[in-house]
Amino acid sequence: MFQRSSQRIKPTDTFIGHGTDMNGTVHSESNVRIDGKFTGELSSSGTITVGERGEAHSTLIGRHVVVAGIVVGDIKTTGKLLITSSGQVLGHCESGLLVVEEGGILNGTSMVDREVKEGTAANGAAAAHEPPERERGEKKDDEAAVAEKQAG
């Protein structure tokens, strides 16, 4: 008669609308969009978007961050930080990828930390300093010829 729903409830996106002034700490499992004014600390497992009319005086921590408005504070993301042509960031940014569109402003410091798969960088660096296989083979052949001349 009454069955329990085994469906998982999906998180709802969080929206701070134009005309809203919010202070405090927000932790969200979903995307967050700021079109009003937010002061405090905001962390999200999803994407944080500061709209064109949005303003954040805070620390933003999210998977991806898009700034089309104003952010005064620090931004930390393992994914992409996109500052659009209307966006302004005043503060320190840490991201996996940084994109600043023409007209976008970043006044502060930035650090891009792209995680490199283990082995790939080491192999690439070793290969860059190692002569091509053909050259290594020719060198061995030359050494063998010299050894033959000395022996014979």
Structure write-up:
This is Polymer-forming cytoskeletal protein. Belongs to the bactofilin family. InterPro entries: BacA/B. Pfam families: Bactofilin. This protein has two helices and 13 strands. With 152 residues, the chain is of the alpha/beta class. The protein has a domain of 94 residues. Strands 2, 4, 6, 8, 9, 11 and 13 form a seven-stranded parallel β-sheet that branches. A six-stranded parallel β-sheet has the order 1-3-5-7-10-12, with no helix packed on it. It is elongated.
Describe the sheet with the most strands.
Answer: 7 strands, parallel
Order of helices and strands: EEEEEEEEEEEEEHH
Structural class: alpha/beta
Number of helices: 2
Residue ranges: pLDDT <50 for 5 or more in a row?
116-139
Distance between the termini: 98 Å
Q: Rg to the nearest angstrom?
A: 27 Å
Average pLDDT confidence is 81
Helix content: 10-25%
The proportion of strand residues reads 35-45%
Shape verdict: elongated
Overall number of strands:
13
Give the tags:
152 residues, 7-stranded parallel sheet, 6-stranded parallel sheet, 13 strands, BacA/B, Polymer-forming cytoskeletal protein
